[in-house]
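Tutorial, part two.
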Amino acid sequence: MSPNAHITSHRKPRRPATQSWVVRTGVAGGVLSTLAVAGTASATTAEKPIEATAELPAFNAELSASIAQSAVATQQTAVDYQVRAQVEDALDQAKADAKKAKEEAERKAEAERKAKEKREADEARASRDNDRGSLGTKSTSGSGSSSSSSSTATGSAATLVDFLRAQVGKAYVMGSTGPSSYDCSGLVMAAYSQIGIDLPRVSQDQSTAGTQVSTSNLKVGDILYWGSAGSAYHVAVYVGGGKFIGAQNPSTGIVERSMSYSPPTGAVRVM
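Running the prediction step on this input gives:
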């Protein structure tokens, strides 16, 4: 007997071959099951993009908000451009209006300058004519004959002159015919009514009411006018001695002035 025969062996008993196959088969099956589960998980993971579409509405909302903001900004920019264009148009129109007004003012100033030059030339010519008339009157007076342009008037002419001198100092009021104020034609009409002569109301008509006479051959009571016959803008009455009485303007009122102060354009005789 072997000396070690009484020692119990600790070696594991060999398993039957069938049991080993079963174990191996089970292990393989477990591995395959694990792979199948993993495959299923992978398939599930591959389908995730379909679930991700659930996040698209949030993305679309953000995109819509951004587009809306962009549209508002674009509209505001368009409005700003429109306002700017309107402002520029207004400025251009204002410049054009200012230029037109300036040109109009320059034209008026030029017209007034020419009118003034013409008026001064007419006054100078009338003054020369009046001087020549005065020389003729002096010559006639020296010969002992009476002059019709003498300041001494009789009859109706005297009545006319007396009335006019009584009005000197009163106010000039446009459209007034007395007794406390007059305009130029209102005074002439009122004066002639004192001697029974009815005259038209306005200076234009009074400048053609009688016979046209030269300003160098005037008689007391002749109507003097300034401007053209039929379109005169002022009238007065010759009172002799190279003077006239008329309602001049609101500043001076009714005055007696020398012919040289403002030589008339023409005269008419109505008596």
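The longest strand covers residues 234-240. In part three we will examine how such features are distributed along the chain.
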